[in-house]
């Protein structure tokens, strides 16, 4: 089912909008992740799509049909709530079978399908327990099973894996991904975990203060963030950021200056404060790149396949990945370098990217989205 | 030994007065009733032990069967109205009326009779049931050209059940509505996403959540109904004859009208025993042990 949100607004008090003129299109069968800081309105958006909150203004369309006034039960959705919302006096099996019971599925088939769903989330062994006899992760999986058991047209998942351990998380992701491919359910996933969003989602919508800042494929968001907020939010470890100044097409930062290509970058009229961003993995040891800097090693973090090095350049910090075999010592001075083309530039005042192609792309995206 | 004394001295001093008070006002009456029940004390106030004579008399009392039946009917139906009506009001003012100010006004209206003195409340009912054509019910009948009816004479049980049922509903309403309000909102949301009907939401979410309050209200109302009689006393005084007399009122009549304190106490003792048995049954029935069981977490 194709979901469209048009100019959606919702406020809980008279002063601010929790959701502010939001536009989002989720294609039929697409997997979309909503990513954003706490309190930005992700759950509110989900509850509006589910029909539990009524929008103050704007449209919600399923397959082109206006559904603003449809009851939740008529929307054919499955939902995992952030609080799980399991029925406390029912056993795990009864919880999972509850949506089927409401659809008047015969008892035998109902139990069969509920067991299957429970198996899928690895809960076959706790079917007779009550929710308060389960761990947080188990409860979360019951909620997931309950959401998918009726094979809905739309799946809304509000942080469905936040309480699982690393291995289980990977298993559940794979299950979700498989399920999504098999059944072609249009899925919206709310998550704090950008890795999860990157892995599962066809497209990611980054939200802030009730608005969508950027909506695009994971690669788009990673390589061409249109906004400083997105650039900072996506990627671990986060993007390195320096303060800089753009004068005409001359960029001054880290005590040096570089000339920017007019075709790639929007240049400044006069002087402009900018954030200069560079992804840690774009920074190399040695003098290979266009821009070089000397720094003092502050921290070395081995992460298995690599080590993360933190260096101080003047009073600014920079992180980079180094080969796990590279012999680097604390407090030693090293030279790092990177290419001008892998820089990201953002206007300090507006937060917008100064890269030209992005401006175009994000504009078209805005029109599509 | 000495150290134990030291340890308990302060608690004893602090708790002493309360223990004494509890003994004086809670325990002593029961003890007194038990003792008095075996005497034939009358207005002369002499303690004369009479063995089981009072209970013998009770078995032979020609009115007692009628009174027992009245008590069962009265307590049963009033309790039903109290609890069911209270529950309906509770759901109405929390689940169906979501606007808090509206439901607050609504609840307050239902509380009003509880806040007004019983005499005033009963006066309203007396006016309602008045046998002349000026009574509320009779003036309604007059609209259809029907003869006035002496309601309190012809349907005394119905009258006392209605009057008590309606005033008692507010208690259940308050308890139930706060229990329903404490159910997490997300449960209702989840149920509506899962396609639950209104009936299913009441049956599968609200009722299980108010199991405890339901037991509490049932037992509490039962105990207060079986032992109190002021509304019956004011409305019909058990009459006509023994048509609406219940055990508690009978005990009062015996003790303070006929001054048969011994016999009145024996009746009260029967009441206490019935109340104990009933409470125990409810306890079992609502599966107290199961609720008390601690949860196992893997
Ligand atoms: N029922 C409500 N009443 C009043 N304000 C609310 C309500 N629900 C949400 N809000 C407000 O709306 C804003 C968005 O809340 P929402 O729950 O959608 O955030 P979220 O993005 O899901 O955050 P989190 O990641 O912490 O779950 C918050 O500022 C919150 O305080
Ligand atoms: Mg949330």
Automatic annotation (TrEMBL), chain A:
InterPro entries according to UniProt: AAA+_ATPase, ABC_transporter-like_ATP-bd, ABC_transporter-like_CS, ABC_transpr_MalK-like, ABC_transpr_MalK/UgpC-like, Mo/tungstate-bd_C_term_dom, NA-bd_OB-fold, P-loop_NTPase
Single GO molecular function: ATP binding
Keywords: ATP-binding, Cell membrane, Membrane, Nucleotide-binding, Translocase, Transport
A GO CC term assigned to this protein in UniProt: ATP-binding cassette (ABC) transporter complex, substrate-binding subunit-containing
Domain ABC transporter residue range list: 3-234
CDD domains xref list: ABC_MalK_N
Pfam family, one: ABC_tran
UniProt-listed Gene3D superfamilies: 2.40.50.100, Nucleic acid-binding proteins, P-loop containing nucleotide triphosphate hydrolases
GO biological process terms held by the UniProt record: carbohydrate transport
Top-level taxon of the source organism: Bacteria
Protein name as annotated: Carbohydrate ABC transporter ATP-binding protein, CUT1 family
Organism: Parageobacillus thermantarcticus
From TrEMBL, chain B:
Transmembrane segments: 12-38, 72-97, 118-137, 157-176, 212-234, 261-286
GO biological process, alphabetically ordered: transmembrane transport
Bilayer topology term: Multi-pass membrane protein
Localization: Cell membrane
Main location: membrane
Entry similarity comment: Belongs to the binding-protein-dependent transport system permease family.
Protein name: Carbohydrate ABC transporter membrane protein 1, CUT1 family
């Amino acid at each position: 089912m194709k979901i469209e949100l048009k100019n959606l607004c919702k406020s809980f008090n008279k002063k601010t909008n929790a959701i502010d003129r939001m536009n989002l299109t989720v294609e039929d069968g697409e997997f979309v992740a909503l990513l954003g800081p706490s309190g930005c309105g992700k759950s509110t958006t989900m509850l509006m799509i589910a029909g539990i909150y009524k929008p103050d203004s704007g449209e919600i369309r399923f397959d082109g049909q206006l559904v603003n006034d449809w009851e939740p039960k008529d929307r054919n959705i499955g939902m995992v709530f952030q609080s799980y919302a399991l029925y406390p006096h029912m056993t795990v099996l009864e919880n999972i079978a509850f949506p089927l019971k409401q659809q008047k599925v015969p008892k035998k088939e109902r139990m069969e399908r509920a067991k299957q769903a429970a198996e899928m989330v690895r809960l076959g062994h706790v079917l007779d327990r009550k929710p308060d006899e389960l761990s947080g992760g188990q409860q979360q999986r019951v909620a997931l099973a309950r959401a998918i058991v009726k094979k809905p047209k739309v799946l809304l998942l509000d942080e469905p894996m936040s309480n699982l351990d690393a291995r289980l998380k990977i298993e559940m992701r794979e299950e979700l991904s498989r399920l999504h491919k098999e059944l072609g359910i249009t899925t919206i996933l709310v998550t704090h975990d950008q890795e999860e969003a990157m892995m599962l989602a066809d497209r990611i919508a980054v939200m802030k203060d009730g608005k969508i800042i950027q909506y695009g494929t994971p690669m788009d968001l990673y390589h061409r963030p249109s906004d400083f907020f997105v650039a900072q939010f996506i990627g671990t470890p986060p993007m390195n950021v320096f303060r800089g100044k753009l004068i005409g097409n001359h960029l001054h930062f880290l005590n040096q200056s570089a000339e920017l290509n007019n075709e790639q970058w929007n240049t400044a009229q006069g002087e402009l404060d900018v954030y200069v961003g560079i992804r840690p993995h774009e920074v190399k040891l040695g003098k290979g790149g266009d821009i070089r800097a000397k720094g003092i090693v502050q921290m070395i973090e081995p992460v298995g396949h690599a080590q993360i090095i933190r260096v101080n350049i003047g009073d600014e910090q920079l992180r980079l990945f180094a080969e796990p075999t590279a012999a680097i010592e604390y407090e030693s001075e090293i030279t790092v370098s990177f290419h001008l083309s892998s820089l990201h530039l953002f206007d300090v005042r507006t937060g917008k990217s100064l890269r030209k192609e992005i401006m175009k792309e994000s504009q078209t995206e805005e029109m599509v989205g | 030994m000495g150290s134990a004394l030291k340890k308990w001295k302060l608690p004893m001093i602090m708790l002493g007065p309360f223990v004494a008070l509890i003994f004086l006002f809670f325990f002593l009456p029961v003890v007194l009733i038990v003792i008095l029940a075996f005497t034939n004390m009358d207005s002369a106030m002499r303690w004369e032990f009479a063995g089981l004579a009072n209970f013998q008399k009770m078995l032979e009392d020609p009115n007692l069967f009628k009174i027992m039946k009245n008590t069962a009917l009265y307590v049963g139906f009033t309790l039903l109205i109290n609890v069911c009506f209270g529950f309906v009001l509770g759901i109405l003012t929390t689940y169906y009326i979501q606007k808090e100010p509206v439901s607050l006004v609504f609840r307050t209206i239902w509380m009003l009779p509880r806040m007004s003195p019983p005499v005033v409340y009963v006066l309203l009912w007396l006016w309602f049931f008045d046998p002349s054509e000026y009574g509320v019910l009779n003036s309604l009948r007059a609209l259809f050209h029907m003869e006035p009816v002496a309601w309190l004479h012809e349907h005394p049980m119905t009258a006392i059940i209605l009057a008590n049922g309606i005033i008692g509903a507010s208690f259940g309403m308050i308890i139930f509505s706060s229990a329903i309000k404490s159910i997490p909102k997300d449960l209702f949301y989840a149920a509506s996403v899962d396609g639950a009907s209104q009936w299913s939401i009441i049956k599968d979410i609200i009722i299980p959540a108010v199991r405890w309050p339901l037991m509490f209200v049932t037992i509490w109302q039962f105990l207060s109904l079986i032992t109190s009689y002021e509304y019956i006393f004011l409305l019909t005084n058990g009459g006509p004859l023994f048509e609406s007399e219940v055990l508690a009122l009978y005990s009062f009549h015996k003790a303070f009208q006929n001054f048969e304190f011994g016999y009145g106490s024996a009746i009260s003792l029967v009441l206490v025993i019935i109340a104990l048995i009933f409470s125990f049954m409810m306890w079992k029935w609502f599966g107290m042990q199961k609720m008390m069981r601690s949860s196992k977490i893997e």
